[in-house]
Amino acid sequence: MGGTKIRRVGGDAMTDDMVRRLLIISIGSSASIHLLGGIAQLYPDLLFKNKIMIIETSRKMFNDAIDNLARIYHRNYAKMRGRSEEEQPKGFPTSTFKAELKENSILLAEGGGGATPEKGLAFYTEKRDIVLGKIAELITNESGEREVSGIVVLGCAGKGTGTLITPALTRDLMREPDIPKPLSFVTIPFRFDKMSIENAMKIQDFLHEVPLFLLDYERAVGGYVYLSGEVPRKDIAITHLYRMVVGALSNVLSTLIEALNYSIECNPPLDWSDIIPILQPGEIGTITYSLRYRRDEFMSKWRDDLTTLLLLRTKTRPSRTRSVMIVRGVDIPLGLAEDTTSFMEKFLGSSPRLYILNRGPDFRIVAMVHGFDPTQITPPLRPGKGILERLIGI
Amino acid sequence: MLVENPTVCLLGYYLGLLGMFGIGFEFVALKIPDFINSLGRKKLLEILIAFLNSWQLGFLLIFVATQYLGGVLGDMLFFLGLGIAIPDIPARFRRYWKYLIAIISLAGVLPGWLADFLATLEAGKSVGEVVKEIEEKVKEERREEEEIKWEEPKYVE
Questions:
Q1: Among A85, A306, B2, B28, which one is most buried in terms of CB atoms within 10 A?
Q2: Which residues, in sequence order, are bridge partners of residue A214?
Q3: What does pLDDT average to over chain A?
């Protein structure tokens, strides 16, 4: 697998009225700073084409998240204007972006969730109506028409804010008739991180009623190793390990958000209402993907990639799943559409809705799959040895 | 790569044979005896220039590209051959069109024994074996028959 590197994705110019605007809600510091920051670095259009909302319980983290996204915005705006970051004058338009981001976001408390998910959930429950009211306000424009096509929620399970607020908010949004149904992605922490995984276990109560997409850190690191050939050493710095996770997840989610933004360019055009029917309460979903820079490598490896890079696994194969598959690349051959459909039928018992996005310098497949049994997640949601220990050999 | 496509390889093989036929017909049988008769430097240069411009050399390069080379180098040589051959073909076609039609017709209704014989020239394989190999390669690429197991993936090779 050596030689494949995670790198930036370029975007083509497209007029704003052709772009489907999303509301991207990130909950908690890990999701807002690391995950959303990582996605924005790979796909800067995320900041230019969508509305962003940060939900936080700590003022310090709230400000850090806003500053971080504003920094990425400033850097990429300068790049768009052909200037260096230093040459670009401070102030407009970054100041406008920052002010709008602050206006769109909600600080539920001052002192943070204290790594206690119940505490975070209590802050949310107390201000639920304010949060839902703000979201309802954000999805419409000044003339009262719906301005946002869909909602993507990002949360990281393991700490005080993202763990339980993400499923609770998803549940509440699913019940709101006038708000688009959300696609909610929640990350599952490493099994060696006892405190985080014990917190993440608390999400299980929601999994039977809220249709979430779970992305497992253990699988993300496995995927990073598979694609890059870089096997973690026993003395790997923990920050580097998290960089691997953020790198892998950012690549997947940036492709997905880009496809949703440019969904009108897809063949056939991808509508939000095409995706939502794959969600079924009582079941969970995940993502599998392929990412290759050379066409011939992509054509020969995509099957291996989709089986290896599944970001959540269950002990037994799900009997039937529902999926949406986006293939992104230039001049995708007709045969691939047929082959991917037949592959997904055999691999996950799924007849995917397939969309081709004719963009980008590389070749990618991102498949959102829903229909896994939440009681069968492997490695199980409890402290213990995970995939990482096997990869490192301890 | 283009030259790694089995159909292009087969086409390159037959074009190469045609090229060799042309070399034999035009150069070995007609021009070289003429040169030997005169042994003039000018005549030799004429023959060399004619060869450099000829469709025979073009087809020969295509043959080498498809049978012995691969990747970018193969593709480059293939198109170099095509570039040499194409400008020369219309003039030749006006003169030799009867022969060309005869050869194309013959290729279209190639008797089994002749096809087998030609195929034995290619790494000792019969037509049946070559076809089977191509079919297996296509099947391998599409992997339609393969069962996908539900097992822990190997993240490290």
A1: A306
A2: A186
A3: 88
Are A286 and A311 within 8 A, CB to CB?
A: yes
Q: How far apart are CA A206 and CA A203, in angstroms?
A: 6
Tokens of A352: 């995917």
Phi, psi (deg, nearest 5) at residue A263: -60, -25
- The string of DSSP codes covering B79-104 is HHHHHHHHHHHHHHHHHHHHHHHHHH
pLDDT of residue A5: 40
pLDDT band, very low/low/confident/very high, at A2 (cuts 50, 70, 90): very low
C-alpha span between A24 and A248 (Å, rounded): 19
Which of A346, A369, A392 has the most B C-beta neighbours within 10 Å, making it the best mutation to test the interface with B?
A: A346
Identify the pLDDT of residue B124. 54
pLDDT, tens only, B107-148: 666 666 666 666 655 555 666 666 677 677 666 666 655 678
Q: What ipTM goes with this model?
A: 0.77
CB contact under 8 A, B155 and A391: yes
Q: Which of A342, A386, A350 is nearest to A368 (CA)?
A: A350
Q: How far is B46 from chain A (nearest CA, A)?
A: 44
Mark yes or no for CB contact A342/B150 under 8 Å.
no
d(CA A162, CA A187) in angstroms, rounded, equals 9
CB nearest to B156's CB, from A310, A343, A391: A391
Pairing of β A377-378 and β A313-314: antiparallel
Q: Residue written as tokens 């440019």?
A: A262
Residues of A in contact with B156 (CB under 8 A): 225-226, 231, 391
pLDDT at B27 over 80: yes
Cβ of B155 under 8 Å from any chain A Cβ? yes
Please count the other Cβ atoms lying within 10 Å of the Cβ belonging to residue A368: 24
Contact A129, A102 (CB under 8 A): no
Q: Quick: pLDDT tens for A47-68.
A: 998 999 999 999 999 999 999 9
Whether the Cβ atoms of residue A223 and residue A6 lie closer than 8 Å to each other: no
Average pLDDT rounded to a whole number, residues A300-305: 92
- When CB atoms are compared, the residue of A1, A313, A347 closest to B148 is A347
Q: Select the residue from A305, A339, A340, A377 to test the B interface by mutation, using most B Cβ atoms within 10 A.
A: A339
- Burial (CB < 10 A; 0-12, 13-18, 19+), residue B100, is middle
The residue with greater pLDDT, B4 or A190, is A190
Sign of the torsion angle spanned by Cα atoms A132, A134, A135, A136: positive
pTM of the shown model: 0.72
**Burial status of residue A275 (CB atoms within 10 A of its CB: 0-12, 13-18, 19 or more):** buried
Q: What is the pLDDT of residue A181?
A: 94
